[in-house]
Design goal:
The complex is a heterodimer of chains A (102) and B (726).
Chain A lengths: L3 H21 L3 H25 L6 H31 L13
Chain B lengths: L2 H7 L2 H14 L3 H28 L8 E10 L2 E9 L1 H24 L19 E4 L5 E4 L6 H20 L3 H19 L6 H32 L4 H5 L2 H9 L9 H16 L8 H4 L5 H10 L1 H11 L1 H4 L10 H22 L4 H21 L3 H36 L14 H4 L1 H15 L6 H15 L3 H26 L6 H4 L6 H16 L19 H7 L13 H22 L9 H6 L1 H7 L4 H75 L7 H25 L2
Antiparallel strand pairs in B: 1-2, 3-4
Helix pairs in contact in B: 1-3, 2-3, 2-5, 3-4, 3-5, 4-5, 4-12, 4-17, 4-23, 5-6, 6-7, 7-10, 10-13, 10-15, 12-13, 12-17, 13-16, 13-17, 15-16, 15-21, 16-17, 16-21, 17-19, 17-20, 17-23, 17-24, 19-21, 19-23, 20-21, 20-25, 21-25
Classes of the chains: A mainly alpha (102), B mainly alpha (726).
Chain lengths: 102, 726
């Protein structure tokens, strides 16, 4: 059986890729995708810990499902926002969308 | 209705009349006086029923009508108030009911009911007369109706309520309430014509003088309640053990017993109310009020109330007296009473105002009663109280009738003389026959004209009592006072009614209306007839023809029946002699007074006459001793020194210092410290914001990096703190 640490290393790698995407990509959709990657790495952690440490309780799986649901909702809202921004400003480059400053 | 219910209801009609008149009917004169007289009639009727029932009970003193209810709670117990009719109350109620009713009826005529409105009368002044023009074009002046007619009836209604409450009460607390209600009403009624400065002064004088007594009396009541725990007559005065205890407990004041101290304190209230020396000064001035008021206050009600109280507390006053001796409280009574009797009688000799003579005579007669109580002549005092109330009410109402008649003459002839000065009268017997006859009866009763009049029997009994118990000083003084009384009474009658008219006004005097004369006739009947209920059994010739009902009946009020005194010829002859000598000399001296003549006594007595005419300068003395110092204290000391200098000075200095302190605080505390720190917060925040605003770029990825760096930094920190250095 594959040891737990492999899963954790894999999840951490996935998280790092996600964070890199969020920080480095200019395209807002790509940033959103990075966020999805990070969420999924968390899911892997949750399921792995469930399976290896507390298999008799269903908490880990339930948590993972809730994360899916939240991620789906978040992507829906996020994409809708991006479409809206695109319609107004004709761009989805994150650096150009800097209206939040003083 | 049961007897007790009637007793409870007796005082109510007059007070209801008071409120009805004040609140609703004061614009309607007929309705107002109908309500007032109707109320007086109801109370009179109730009183007569009670009197009749009370007379028929055997040994009534031991089984009086009484009823009481708890009034207000005091800790675990209640103050009980209630009504009590014992033989004393019954006879007092009898004369109160009659005189009050008579005075109410008389007031209708006295206030000129049915006369036109005055030409320039206004509220607060006596009616000045109205001008009428008949069909021939002759105009003449007639008396005009009292401008505040309804108000007068409202006030005497309240007064009657106070009197009935006082008489029917079974405890000293409600008695005191009635007492004070009468004090208030006397104030209001003496100052009824409040626009007259003299009336205003008189009302204040009467109120303050009686207040001096009332305050001491209230203290006495408090002391009594403190020692007895109750104020009910039955519990205190019919409880010999308790009275003995009071009489044997020393109080610490001048070696007097507690009983004597309480008795004397209550008696000081009586001195004020019944106008005894030295608090007598208010009563003559109270003549400023309308004459029915004088009759009510000075004969039927208020001054009698004082005597009534003294009679009530008689067991307390005599507590601890061994056989035949006088207690210290009784000595005080005897002294004050006897002194007042002779003192006031001597002043009355030199007064010219018809009502003032009567006022001093009242003071003197009240002194008789007090003296009688002081020497233990209980029944004689009660007897004299009642006969005096009848004939003095009669005399006052009669004098009002005389004044009214002369006023009519004054208006008719336009001869502006003082209608109250007896030297302006004369010869009125033909003009005013009913007034004359009744006044003569009242005057003879006051003088103690032998055998016929009530005044003779009661006065004789006091003298006989004084003689039989060997109080010779009291006896001689009172006999002398009786001589003076007979003299000034005859002086008054002669000056007023006999001889020839000395002024045009007196010549045109006219008999007054029936509402004024009818009460006179009824009171005259009592002034004669009431004496017959108390003729001593062993009086020569006529004694025992009528039983001495009064002695038997009223004597039952006390727990031990007072002994009958044996008859002696000396006091009888004395009282007959003084009455006749006084009357005759009064007639001889004054029968031929010419218009404008001075009083013949003035030549005989000289400076003494001036002294008497000025009432021994008591008013001036009190003015010097009390009034001026009070005015000085209020105007100079309190107002000028205390108020203007000290209190205003303090205020002004505060007003000066406070702005200085304020400026200091503003310049050295408020501006630098409070404002400075507040500004610092505001400005500092602003500056910080200016510094930090550059961090906010609006680029989301920079924020993310910032967040990441922070998280990593904190993770390292926590890792270091929690894991590496546990």
């Amino acid at each position: 059986m594959i040891p737990l640490s492999w899963y954790l290393i894999f999840a951490a790698a996935l998280f790092a890729i996600g964070i890199f995407g969020v920080l480095a990509r200019k395209n807002a959709i790509a940033i959103l995708m990075g966020i999805e990657l990070m969420l999924n790495s968390v899911n892997i952690n949750l399921v792995a810990f469930w399976r290896y440490i507390t298999p008799e309780r269903i908490t880990g799986q339930v948590f993972a499902i809730m994360v899916f649901a939240v991620a789906a909702a978040e992507v829906a809202v996020g994409l809708a926002l991006i479409i809206s921004i695109y319609r107004r400003r004709k761009t989805i480059v994150a650096e150009d969308i800097d209206m939040l400053k003083f | 209705m049961t007897t007790e219910t009637i007793i409870w209801l007796i005082p109510l009609p007059p007070v209801l009349a008071f409120f009805l008149i004040i609140l609703f009917t004061n614009r309607n004169k007929v309705l107002s006086h109908s309500i007032a007289i109707g109320a007086a009639l109801l109370s009179w009727f109730g009183s007569m029923v009670i009197f009749w029932r009370a007379v028929q009970v055997e040994h009534f003193g031991e089984h009086p009508f009484s009823s009481s209810i708890p009034w207000f709670p005091t800790g675990l117990t209640h103050i009980q108030i209630g009504v009590l009719v014992d033989p004393l109350t019954a006879v007092v109620l009898f004369f109160v009911a009659w005189t009050v009713l008579m005075i109410f009826i008389y007031s209708v005529g006295y206030s000129n009911f049915g006369q036109p409105k005055g030409d320039h009368d206004r509220p607060g002044l006596q009616p000045h007369g109205a001008t009428l023009t008949d069909e021939h074009g002759h105009s003449h002046k007639v008396p005009s109706i009292e401008p505040m007619y309804s108000r007068f009836f409202a006030f005497i209604g309240l007064f009657a309520f106070g009197m009935y409450t006082l008489v029917l009460s079974d405890n000293l607390l409600t008695l005191f309430i009635g007492w004070e209600i009468m004090g208030l009403c006397s104030y209001l009624l003496i100052g009824f014509w409040y626009a007259k400065p003299s009336a205003r002064a008189a009302m204040i004088k009467a109120f303050i003088t009686t207040r001096v007594g009332d305050v001491v009396m209230l203290l006495g009541l408090v002391y009594l309640y403190f020692t007895a725990g109750t104020l009910s007559y039955r519990d205190i005065f019919y409880n010999p053990e308790f009275l003995d205890k009071l009489a044997s407990t020393p109080s610490g004041f001048f070696g007097l017993s507690v009983a004597a101290v309480i008795g004397i304190m209550l008696f000081i209230g009586v001195i004020g109310k019944s106008a005894q020396w030295p608090l007598h000064v208010w009563l003559p001035d109270a003549m400023e009020g309308p004459t029915p008021v004088s009759a009510m206050i000075h004969a039927a009600a208020m001054v009698s109330a004082g005597i009534y109280l003294t009679i009530r507390i008689y067991p307390l006053l005599t507590a601890g007296a061994s056989h035949g001796e006088l207690t210290s409280a009784m000595v005080v009574l005897a002294f004050i009473g006897t002194f007042t009797a002779i003192f006031a009688a001597s002043i009355a000799v030199a007064q010219n105002d018809i009502k003032r003579v009567l006022a001093y005579s009242t003071i003197s007669q009240l002194g008789y009663m007090i003296a009688a109580l002081g020497i233990g002549a209980y029944i004689a005092a009660v007897f004299h109280l009642i006969t005096h109330s009848f004939f003095k009410a009669l005399l006052f109402l009669g004098s009002g009738s005389v004044i009214h008649g002369v006023e009519h003459g004054v208006l008719h002839t336009d001869d502006h003389v003082d209608p109250q000065d007896m030297f302006n009268m004369g010869g009125l017997r033909k003009k005013m026959p009913i007034t004359f006859i009744t006044f003569l009866i009242g005057g003879l009763a006051l003088a103690g004209f032998p055998l016929v009049t009530a005044g003779f029997w009661s006065k004789d009994e006091i003298l006989a009592d004084a003689f039989a118990n060997k109080h010779y000083i009291v006896f001689v003084t009172l006999a002398l006072a009786a001589l003076l009384t007979a003299f000034y009474t005859m002086r008054q009658i002669t000056l007023t009614f006999f001889g020839k008219a000395r002024t045009k006004a007196a010549e045109h005097a006219q008999e007054t209306t029936w509402t004024m004369t009818a009460p006179l006739v009824i009171l005259a009947i009592f002034a004669i007839g009431f004496g017959w209920v108390g003729i001593p059994e062993d009086f020569p010739a006529i004694g025992g023809v009528l039983p001495n009902w009064f002695h038997e009946y009223v004597g039952g009020t006390l727990s031990s029946h007072p002994a009958t005194i044996t008859f002696g010829y000396e006091p009888l002859l004395t009282s007959v002699l003084v009455a006749l000598v006084g009357l005759t000399s009064g007639w001889l001296v004054y029968r031929k007074i010419q218009p404008g003549a001075v009083d013949p006594l003035k030549k005989v007595l000289g400076p003494v006459y001036t002294l008497l005419q000025n009432k021994y300068y008591f008013d001036e003395l009190y003015d010097f001793l009390f009034v001026r110092p009070s005015i000085w204290i209020s105007e100079t000391f309190t107002y000028l020194w205390m108020d203007r200098k000290i209190i205003d000075g303090i205020l002004h200095s505060i007003a000066y210092v406070m702005p200085l302190i304020g400026t200091f605080f503003r310049n050295y505390i408020d501006l630098p410290i409070v404002n400075g720190s507040a500004d610092l917060v505001g400005e500092g925040t602003k500056k910080l914001g200016q510094v930090l605003r550059v961090v906010q770029t609006g680029r989301i990825q920079q924020y993310m990096i910032g967040a990441l760096v922070t998280i990593v930094a904190f993770s390292v920190l926590f890792y270091y703190l929690l894991v590496l250095t546990p």
